[in-house]
Amino acid sequence: MEELQQKEQQKKQQEARAIDRQIDRLMREAIAEANRKAAAVNAKANPTATVSKAAVTSSRIILTAESKILADNFRANKGKLPWPVEKGFVSLGYGNQAHPVYKTLVIHNSGVEITTDAGSNARAVYIGEVTKVIVISPLNKAICVQHGDYFTIYQNLSSVNVSAGDKVTTKQVLGKIRTNGEGKTVLKFLISQNTTYANPQTWISRM
Predict the structure, then answer these.
(1) What stretches of 26-166 adopt beta strand conformation (E)?
(2) DSSP 104
């Protein structure tokens, strides 16, 4: 029985890594699109300037004057951002860690998992623009919000209230968090600068 449960946990980890790869690919697409737009804005402002193809296809965002201000303000709020839920607790932290039951099984988490009440909503932690609404499965959606060269990702949503291109405000409701078959309502929340993930717990305020 224990061996079967361990195999089930390993399968969940494989699925989580597959979702991470999907989100990473879509984020790179969002960065490429942002860079194309930034290159067009910069070219209009300074027609004599040239932007290399490598820069446009880079994994780092080319910041316009406006997006640099947004990124700087986002970074200035490190440790003070509101939680992406009204109430809840971190049920799985960031990074590699031993499984709470099966100590030989290492869990990798690219963000944090926040357990909350059934029917709860995910909310934006800062002003930004929705770059992607990702349909992982019919019952699992994710929203990617851009803040300059930072991204916040809200995963495990049953429904969404926003679309790509929408501007969002701090604490705006983005969608409803899915309650799984075990009756648990868990939001996976990620923060990255370009494609480098950070520990969200160092960014959000204490509840």
Answers:
(1) 89-92, 95-98, 106-109, 112-116, 121-123, 128-137, 140-147, 150-160
(2) T
User: Burial, 131: exposed, middle or buried (Cβ in 10 Å; 0-12, 13-18, 19+)?
Assistant: buried
CA neighbor of 30 nearest in space, from 154, 149, 162: 149
Higher pLDDT, 42 or 17: 17
pLDDT tens profile 40-64: 877 777 776 555 554 555 678 888 8
What integer best gives the mean pLDDT of the chain? 87
Among 133, 95, 129, 134, which residue's Cα sits nearest to residue 112?
95
Residues in the chain: 207
Write down the H helix ranges in the chain.
Answer: 2-45, 53-56, 65-76
Per-residue confidence band for 18, with pLDDT thresholds at 50, 70 and 90: confident
Other beta carbons within 10 Å of 103:
8
- List C-alpha distances in Å: 38 to 29, 58, 120, 156, 203: 14, 12, 36, 31, 27
Q: φ, ψ for residue 202 (rounded to 5)?
A: -85, -10
Rg (the chain; Cα; Å): 18
Burial of 11 (0-12, 13-18, 19+ CB in 10 A): exposed
